[in-house]
Amino acid sequence: MNTETIVHPRLQHIALATGNMDAMIAWYRTVVGMNINHRRAAKPDPSYKGPPFGAAWISNDEVHQRIALFEFPRLAVDSDKQRHTHMHHFAFQYETLEDLLGTYARLKALDIVPAVAVDEGVQISFYYDDPDKNRVELNVGNFRSEWTAGEYMKNEQRMQRAEIDPDKMLEALKAGASAWELHERALAGEFAPAKPYVPA
Questions:
Q1: What is the pLDDT of residues 81-112, one digit of tens each?
Q2: Alpha carbons 110 and 84: distance in angstroms, whole number
Q3: pTM
Q4: What is the DSSP letter of 9?
Q5: How many helices (H) and strands (E) does the chain have?
Q6: Average pLDDT of the residues in 49-54
Q7: Per-residue DSSP letter, 10
Q8: Which pLDDT does position 131 carry in this prediction?
């Protein structure tokens, strides 16, 4: 048994507390294809000293849970969340830019749009807000491997960032531009939105 060297575990799931279970399940099903693997209604539990709570364990892959949702009675969204300590965001990664932009188009048709979209040098990221105002990032890497992306990030002088209008990038993709061309054109400012993003 190794007791000296750090073992690197994989991040398995995150857990979110909510007062809005049905809307949260529906949103994650619609946005990233999450399905319920198990759900229980709020009920007293002798082994738990707090108030009764409902729970759902959802996943969009072979892992039994990627998100655990715990529903507590009378829990409300923090309207001043940005001024309080909170989870900033969590992310889902696509294999191709076509997948990311196709998802953007599908969600836009359902009136689900990103709060902000950015080429961050290492990746292109669209940031959405779920029903509880948790920030959820959908992204795709700009490099062919995570090792190359890591090498890029180690060189701080090369780190770049540019806000993008996903519709402009989508049109350029449809016109035949490659993913790398779109990345370079984004950093050059070609896909800049009409109005810059202003955090709430």
A1: 878 888 899 999 999 999 999 999 999 999 99
A2: 31
A3: 0.91
A4: P
A5: 5, 9
A6: 78
A7: P
A8: 95
Q: Please give the Cα distance from 133 to 32 (Å, whole number).
A: 16
- For the chain, give the number of residues: 200
Q: Which two tokens stand for residue 143?
A: 């490099």
Domains of the chain in sequence order: 14-71 (3.10.180.10), 88-187 (3.10.180)
Strands, E, within the chain: which ranges?
14-18, 35-43, 53-59, 67-71, 90-94, 116-119, 123-129, 135-141, 162-163
DSSP assigned state of 132: T
Distance CA 110, CA 187 (A): 28
- Average pLDDT of the segment spanning 35-61: 86
101 in Cβ contact with 113 (< 8 Å): no
pLDDT at 73: 79
